[in-house]
Amino acid sequence: MKVTVSRKAHFNAAHRLYRKDWSMEKNDSVFGKCNNPNFHGHNYELIVSVTGEIDQETGFVIDVKILSDLIKAHIENAFDHKNLNLDVTEFADLNPTAENIAVVIWNKLRKYIDANKDLEVVLYETPRNFVTYKGE
């Protein structure tokens, strides 16, 4: 009997979508206003879900307090009120698209979640634009 436990979180961050190896014209053509050299920001909403068997002793798939603390320590503290391009090392050479941000979040959390449990990250960049990553 597998159950999914989810925790919502929130962070605000700025970013710029562009490739250093492209001209400004090509970046503008592909990324439009998201290529603003002065950056732009989002109020990101994050849902982290862990799926697994219910522990017969505790009744938990994962203790939600532990999941909350992991998200706070490894995601919110690292990303909130940051410029992703400039302040977050994972994006030094990685374009901080919503897709890439979701993968980075998944990778940061995966090592703290038991291997026998599935991890899913849903990242809302806007209320209508969101991505989901479940690992490879």
From TrEMBL:
<comment type="similarity">
    <text>Belongs to the PTPS family. QueD subfamily.</text>
</comment>
<keyword id="KW-0479">Metal-binding</keyword>
<keyword id="KW-0862">Zinc</keyword>
<dbReference type="InterPro" id="IPR038418">
    <property type="entry name" value="6-PTP_synth/QueD_sf"/>
</dbReference>
<dbReference type="Pfam" id="PF01242">
    <property type="entry name" value="PTPS"/>
</dbReference>
<dbReference type="InterPro" id="IPR007115">
    <property type="entry name" value="6-PTP_synth/QueD"/>
</dbReference>
<protein>
    <recommendedName>
        <fullName>6-carboxy-5,6,7,8-tetrahydropterin synthase</fullName>
        <ecNumber>4.1.2.50</ecNumber>
    </recommendedName>
</protein>
<keyword id="KW-0456">Lyase</keyword>
<comment type="pathway">
    <text>Purine metabolism; 7-cyano-7-deazaguanine biosynthesis.</text>
</comment>
